[in-house]
Each structure stands twice: as C-alpha cells, then as structure tokens.
Amino acid sequence: MTANQQTASQHGSSLIDDPAFKEALSRSAAKGRLSNDEIRERRAGRRRFVTAGIAGLLVLGGVGLYHSQSDIFAQIGRSAPQTREYSTQPGEMKEIVTEDGTMIRLNGASRIALTFADDRRHARLITGQAHFDVRRDEDRPFTVRAGQSETRVLGTAFDINLMKSQVVLSVYRGGVRFDSVDANQPVVVTAGWRRRLNGNRISAPESFDSGQRDWDKGWVNTAGITLADLVEVLNRGGGKPIAAPPAELGQSEISGRFRIDDSRQFLSSLGEAYGFRVRETDSTVVLEAR
Q1: In contact, 225 and 253? CB cutoff 8 Å
Q2: Cβ of 65: how many Cβ atoms within 10 Å?
Q3: Contact predicate 157/135, CB 8 Å
Q4: Where are the beta strands (DSSP E) in the chain?
Q5: Between the CA of residue 56 and those of 9, 12, 13, 46, 59, what are the distances in Å?
Q6: Which of 3, 49, 114, 157 could serve as 133's disulfide partner, Cβ 3.0–4.6 Å?
Q7: Is-contact 210 191, C-beta < 8 A?
Q8: For the chain, what percentages of helix, strand and coil (3-state, to nearest 5) are there?
C-alpha cells in the first residue's frame, strides 16, 4: 500500500466513524441517493469536525510543549556546581577573588580546589596554606576541607595551615566551626584564637595577636610546631630545598615568631639555640645534629 493509499484509508476509517456520515448513509438508503445540497452540507460538517479535532490536538500539544520548556528553563536556572583548582610554586603567592567577593591568599607550594553552587561554597586545601576572607552569605555556607579537618563559616577571616603532622586553624575575624571529619565533635573558634587538629584530636585553644600577619608579611610563627613542621613551612618560600631533618631532631619543638627573609641565615641562627648545624650541598640544605 502506498503512502497516499494508507492516508486515504486512515481518513476513510475516521469518516466511517463520523455520526454525521452514518446519518447521511441512512438517509441515502431511505431516499436512494443524496442531493447535491445534502452532499455539500455533509462535507461542510465533516470539515468542521476535522478542524475541531485538529485544534484540540494543537491545544493539548501546546500544553505539553509549554510544560516541557518550563522544565528545561528550570533546569537552566539552576547552575551546576563548578570546580576550579589554583596552585602556586615555592616562593610564589597568589590572591584569588571568587565570584561572591571572597578573597583567598595562597602561600607558596600550595594547591586549592574551589566548588561553588547555588546552595554551597566549598574549598579543599590540598597542600600548603591559605588565608580566607569570606564574604557573608547565610544561604550558602562556606566550608573548607584540609586533611581530616573541616571548617564551616558564614562570613569571617581565618587561616588554615595544612602540614603533614597537623592542621592549624587561626581565626582573624568572626567565628568558625572546626571539626574532624571522623570525630564529629565540632568546636567554635573565635577571633584571636587558634586550634590544631592532630589525627582526630582537636587541641585546647591558644590565643594569638590577630592584628599581626605572618607568612604573607614575611614572618613565621612557630608556636606549637616542630622543626620538621618548620622545614615544611620554609620550603614554601622557594630557594634551595631543605631536606627533612632526622626523625629525632625533627621532633624538637620550636617556639617564637621570626622574620624569614633569608631562610638559610634563619636556620643557622636557630641551630645555635636548638643544637643543630646547617650544611649545604649542590641541591639541598641539610640539617644535622651537633
């Protein structure tokens, strides 16, 4: 059957089911044949019937199309989460301004991933150290994952130092919630206070001068860190890499706030007080116990 024949057959089936056509057939049988006027009347009725049916389909189709487009536009209106990574080389610092006005400063040898969505703002400090000045947004809390720690804020300024041995949180303005992702025992840390996460244990609060800036101003605050931690921090500043000290020497606790324009000279002075000497090779700086 050709396409035209198939179409004609479909139209014929619809016409046979038409009550007006059935009535015409009955009258034709009674009269013998239809008059020309009757044929024209039946054809006009048939056209009205078909036109009404098509209009109904268009209305139904239009409703369906409207809903489909509305769903599509609703999906477009919801922005998908976008993640961007930023990193620095040793000796390099970088300032990041996000789409909401939050400012993030990366220390050297640091890497961070930022994910922003309609309902949340999230940062993952992968390595190194970052200072955050978060624009307040009660509808989108700002969270930072660093190692096994999680920090949650609405709007504040704070610093996170991710080291191999610990995570150090220092709050400069406002307050944040600080927690271990495994322990789920959050504490609130306010401006001028510092907390540390070692494993799953959060340290007691330590006060500090929130009016003093450290690493981004060329200073290092060694309170609560070991010599091994200090070497990790100094290596972010670039220059000849400092080798990790021997285990016993590396556990020496360092205390104080020092200017670190020249890390080699700084270590030599520190060695006088902590019992180690500094030796340089072609590629590294080595710390040795006296």
Answers
A1: yes
A2: 11
A3: no
A4: 82-87, 94-97, 103-106, 111-116, 121-133, 142-146, 149-153, 157-162, 167-173, 175-180, 187-190, 193-198, 201-202, 206-207, 219-221, 225-226, 253-254, 257-259, 276-280, 285-289
A5: 22, 20, 19, 15, 5
A6: 157
A7: yes
A8: 35, 35, 30
C-alpha distances in angstroms, 180 versus 39, 49, 106, 192, 223? Answer: 87, 73, 23, 21, 21
Written as tens digits, the pLDDT of the chain (290 aa) is 544 444 444 444 444 455 544 454 444 444 444 455 554 565 555 555 444 444 443 333 443 333 334 333 334 445 678 899 999 999 999 999 999 999 999 999 999 999 999 899 999 999 999 999 999 999 999 999 999 999 999 889 999 999 999 999 999 999 999 999 988 889 999 999 999 999 889 999 999 999 988 898 889 989 889 999 999 999 999 999 999 999 999 999 998 899 888 888 899 999 999 999 999 999 999 999 98
148 token code pair: 């096994």
Beta strand 193-198 pairing with 206-207: antiparallel
User: CA 250, CA 255: separation in Å to the nearest integer?
Assistant: 14
Nearest-angstrom CA–CA distance, 281 and 278: 10
Looking at the DSSP bridge assignments, the partners of residue 194 are 170, 206
What span, in angstroms and rounded, lies between the C-alpha atoms of 258 and 170? 17
Question: Do the Cβ atoms of 148 and 200 come closer than 8 Å?
Answer: yes
**How far is residue 206's CA from residue 192's CA, in Å, rounded to a whole number?**
8
